[in-house]
Amino acid sequence: MTGAHLLLPVALLTLAGCADTGFLSGGWLSRRQASTGSLMGSEQRRDPALSGNGRLLASISERQGRSSVILQEQPSGRLLPLRHLRGHSPHRSPALSWNGRYLAVLMQQGMQTVAVVEDRLRGQLLRLPAPAGASVERLSLAPDGQTVALQLVQGGQQRVQVFDLSGLLEPDRAGGQRISDPPP
Amino acid sequence: MKLLAPALLATTLLTGCLGPMPIPRSGLNRQLEQAGGNRDPSLGLRWMALIQQRGGREQVQLLDLQRQLPIPVPGLNRPDALPISVSTDANGERLALVRQLGGRSEVVLYRRALQSLQLIPMASDSIPTQVSLRADGRQLAVQVSRNGLWQIDLVELP
Questions:
Q1: Does A172 map to a domain?
Q2: Beta-carbon separation of A165 and B121 below 8 A
Q3: Per-residue buried b or exposed e for A70-94, using 16+ beta carbons within 10 Å of the residue's own CB
Q4: Chain B contact present for A18, CB below 8 A
Q5: Can you tell me the distance from the alpha carbon of A172 to that of A53, in angstroms, rounded to the nearest whole number?
Q6: Based on the domain organization, do A159 and A69 belong to the same domain?
Q7: What's the whole-model pTM score?
Q8: Residues of A with CB below 8 A from B42's CB?
Q9: Judgement on whether residues A4 and A89 belong to the same structural domain of the protein
């Protein structure tokens, strides 16, 4: 057995011991903690959502008992501004379209939780009213932004309803316009 | 006709005031309602994964939104596992799942074309609780509980 043959298993064992790698049948995969960017290390983060092109990560940051949606560039962790969502926390259940043009999230409006979509290209906010008598618990936005699914609680039962947004939002398709910061 | 005109006018005015509204996918929603309790929806382009209550237990279901039909996912659901969170890629080809099995939480990746289920190794000090699969299926964002804090791990997938 050559030196190289001996070194390979040692290298693999070393890799396996690291916290940032793992083996998946078919190849090694890398794992890392999402960059905290300018966030404090002790902040809690939950409800992750990636844009389809992988450039953006939306999540809920919990700080001093406040839950706010944040949008970060990957992998730098740079925070991107959100025009319409400040001041309407708590937020939860964010979702991003393919290029990150649309950020959908649940936010508090008075006594109600409402689903909204921020169009980061046009700087507009679209409100999606929940069906009467139902409260919204979670949402999912299709990668092209043309469909939204809401998890509702109505009459004590959890159910999912799907809505067509094609008359309201332009499609945000794979390979479409890349959006970093919204227009001034 | 005398009655129709004011009604039409009122509808037009109302629509004008409220602006365009999202349109419920009524047939699909009726079908979902008849199926019982549903939670944790995850949309692809023409697919939706969700956790559905069926026969007293929860299981992952994948729906074709165009044909409004469930798509078979053999090997994904185990009678002894409790699904916690599910996420699909844009094409409904890859599904990521957090499930509880034997008292432990784990992340698995299901590939529909291969009908294969693979364990995604997570750090030993992390308990996965929620998963979000990138639309191209190449990266996972996993919400984990680590040292009493919620954090997010990103996993690149081959």
A1: no
A2: no
A3: bbbbbeeeeebebebbeebbebbbb
A4: no
A5: 11
A6: yes
A7: 0.85
A8: 140, 149
A9: no
Number of domains composing chain A: 2
| CATH among 2.120.10.30, 3.30.70.3290, 3.80.10.10, 3.40.50.2000 for B25-156 | 2.120.10.30
HSE-up of A92 (CA within 13 Å, CB side)? 12
Domain that holds residue A17: 1-32
B contacts of A138 (beta carbons < 8 Å)? 39-41
- Judge whether A179 and A99 are in contact, CB under 8 Å: yes
Residue A76 inside a domain? The answer is: yes
Contact status, residue A91 vs residue A68, Cβ threshold 8 Å: yes
B101 interfaces chain A, CB cutoff of 8 Å: no
CB of B91 within 8 Å of a chain A CB? The answer is no
Q: Please state the separation of Cα B71 from the chain's center in Å.
A: 13
Amino acid at the residue A93: S
How big is chain B by its Cα radius of gyration, in Å?
20
Closest CB from A24, A139, A159 relative to B32: A159
- Using the Cβ of A73 and the Cβ atoms of chain B, whether some distance falls under 8 Å is answered with no
What is the predicted pLDDT for the residue at A181? 54
- How far is A28 from chain B, CA to nearest CA, in Å? 8
Higher pLDDT, A132 or B84: B84
One digit per residue, pLDDT tens: chain B, 158 residues?
444 454 444 444 444 445 678 999 999 999 999 988 999 999 999 999 999 998 889 999 999 999 999 999 999 999 999 999 999 999 999 999 999 999 999 999 999 999 999 999 999 999 999 999 999 999 999 999 999 999 999 999 98
Are A160 and B41 an interchain contact pair (Cβ–Cβ within 8 Å)? yes
CATH number at residue A123: 2.120.10.30
Answer whether A19 sits within 8 Å of B65, measured CB to CB.
no
